[in-house]
Amino acid sequence: MHSNPSLSTRLWAAALWVAVGFFVLNLLALIASVVVSSFGTRWLGTWLPAGFTTRWYFAAWEEFQLHDVLLTTFQVAFSVVILSGLLGVPAAYAMARRDFPGKKALMLLFLLPLLVPPITYGIPMATVLYQTGLGGTLAGVILANLVPTVPFVILVMIPFVEQIDPRIEQAARVFGAGTFRLFVHVLTPLLLPGVLAALLLVLVRTIAMFELTFLTAGPTSQTLVVALYYSVFAAGVRAVQSVDAMAVIYMLATLVWLVIALRFVSPTQIVARAKQQQAH
């Protein structure tokens, strides 16, 4: 027979739920205040503005040149996702299947960009990029964002590679599959759940990356999060509603791409799919 939970256990669970609910409530209230402000005409010391309008969104679109900023954001995000996959997945396979001198040191090197705050290595990296002429360019922003994302893909993909029975690869080679055909026709379908999960996280991480993008971006290579920072702290007088409208656009852009990605990748099914493939 199972004993009922003790009073202390129930109190701890209740306190935990209250803390989570308080956090979620404050987060929703913060988002709601920004959204309401982005549509408000003016505030007169009341809970709601005197009126509502959409003109702040048109003003933000023109004032902050959001068309160019959004285009740059998508170019950076997709370039980083594609390059991280092309570089990280083969590297993860090599790290999982091969033993060589210095492997542990190399793994530690991969961990550093994920453990160390980006600002600590971002400043010297930005200095090098500006000295080589890549600072302030779109290519420089992409390279800077690859520093933490490629190791992230490698570390995420290594367990997925290790779950694949090496005898599957040996059987494919017995039947004449070369390295390229083995990787494309045998390994890629088995690794697809892990690849999609890793690239989904890379996409969200890149859109939200501020420090490295801020240090390496120029006037024509700013992503949305950096442009939002400049709109808040740059010199000059700007309407609060216009800045809030830009923040809402940033939230919606991130949410839209996350929803699209989750349409094709379900995190709750990744482990199940991997286990099913392993069983077969």
Automatic annotation (TrEMBL):
Keyword Membrane: yes
Domain of life of the source: Bacteria
InterPro entries on file: MetI-like (IPR000515), MetI-like_sf (IPR035906)
Annotated transmembrane regions: 12-39, 76-96, 108-130, 136-161, 182-204, 247-265
Keywords tagged on the record: Cell inner membrane, Cell membrane, Membrane, Transmembrane, Transmembrane helix, Transport
PROSITE patterns: ABC_TM1 (PS50928)
Pfam families from the UniProt entry: BPD_transp_1
Topology versus the membrane: Multi-pass membrane protein
UniProt-listed Gene3D superfamilies: MetI-like
Record bears the keyword NADP: no
All residue ranges annotated as the ABC transmembrane type-1 domain in the record: 70-261
Localisation per UniProt entry: Cell inner membrane; Cell membrane
Recorded family membership: Belongs to the binding-protein-dependent transport system permease family.
Listed name of the protein: ABC transporter permease
Organism expressing this protein natively: Roseomonas elaeocarpi
